[in-house]
């Protein structure tokens, strides 16, 4: 006959105590361990967003004209590499990123002239401001924090901007800022296209960018005073962009850009655009002084009123963002509508001339 185990009240109490200890260990020791990684990532991102302030003096390329002063930012990436490196290590690209973001730009509808005139109407002049050189979340947040529509133009994925395909998802509308060969300097942190690159290489680069930014429909050039003057190079680039249904916005870093010549006899790809491409009218922050940035912005407003629209380009410098915020009242009273680049209407001027 087997012996029976008799549980006394004391032994039952001991067993209950041990069970409670195991539960407490599971709740307060083991469970938090599994959440450490995700919580740490979120905390780090928030800290970087708060601390990643931009303070940058312009770097001039010899005796460049105002048309070429967009190429002043040679130190921009270098001054922020440490912060960018920390941020870039936080978010790793997943294997199914492209599948999760497989929205493809649809072809524009075919419309007759009367339908286009109905579709392409603006009641007042339009001004689109582009902020170039956006490389990280902190810069994008400051652009999106402006009290009116501003288009961020993000660097493609590279050593200096590994996370831009991810942060682009936070923008209601964005462009990509493609580094093209300049005449006098080179930033090794970027991935460049050069004069002499083959048609295949340029096409593959644009396809790579489109995979990273599936919703991309507009792109402008970072530097490019040499590249945009070369007929063959621009032909390869603009053909590749057209295949991916991406409209080119010429930053006009040189007055000798061949973009206009290339598109001279090409049909428009957007029913509301007079030509199949756009180009910059004003640089806002060639000189990093609030008064001069304000003057440049007023000039952009004047141009918009003269021809119905205007495109101004600035950079995510602290003084530029501050000046734009301070100019909110001027913009609201100007009679000009602030729009994203993809909202520009250039084909039909429906504004009554007075």
TrEMBL record:
Residue stretches spanning the membrane: 12-34
Matches recorded under Pfam families: Polysacc_deac_2
Transcription in keyword set: no
One GO term of the biological process aspect: carbohydrate metabolic process
UniProt xrefs under InterPro entries: Divergent_DAC (IPR006837), Glyco_hydro/deAcase_b/a-brl (IPR011330)
Keyword Transmembrane among record annotations: yes
Superkingdom of origin organism: Bacteria
Keywords of the record: Membrane, Transmembrane, Transmembrane helix
Name the UniProt record assigns to this protein: Divergent polysaccharide deacetylase
